[in-house]
Amino acid sequence: MLGAVWVVAAVLAAGVAWAGIGVVGDQVTDDRPAPLSADEIAQAVAGDRAASTITTASPTDATTTTAVPPTDASATTRTYRMEGGVATLRFSPAGVEVVAATPNEGFSVDWEPEHGNGVKVEFESDAHDSRIDAWWDGGPQVERRENGEDVGAGDNRGQGSGGDDGGGGGPGPG
């Protein structure tokens, strides 16, 4: 009889423990939102870009912001490597968009509209400033500066999409 009471108590204790694990497990797993699909991520990023948000990164927490630009047959995408970081810009007759801006370690990044249809991207640290001014004027136009000194400017129509921009002379922003 004592053995039967012990078995009943053990089964009851195991059942209570199992029920407790189930309740805790449900709270941990059931309240989580479902993972986002690639399309949902692209829509969220495009919505952020449309709201003209600015992403910054602290020196210890570098981030990359990526947007999905609209399709335009005359559009071209260019990547610019600066001392402060890397910026990828999409040029089209409608203007210039920041596709991605990744600061190097110790730098922060900020960008804003400029020149009517262009953008200014700045990578800053305590000791250095890298700046890219980009706009569309019959084609991609770029002026790059490291600590206030020009390192590349002008008309970049002859360069391939996605490549590093070395600059090529020509007029500055008007």
Provide structural commentary.
This protein has 174 residues and is an alpha+beta fold. 24% of the residues lie in helices and 34% in strands. It is built from two helices and eight strands, in the order ααββββββββ. The chain has helices at residues 2-29, 38-50, and strands at 76-81, 85-92, 95-103, 108-114, 118-124, 129-136, 140-146, 149-155. A five-stranded antiparallel sheet has the order 4-5-6-7-8, with no helix packed on it. The protein has a three-stranded antiparallel sheet with strand order 1-2-3, with no helix packed on it. It is elongated and about 95 Å long. 21% of the residues are buried.
What are the key terms here?
174 residues; disordered C terminus; 2 helices; alpha+beta; 5-stranded antiparallel beta sheet; 3-stranded antiparallel beta sheet; 8 strands; single chain
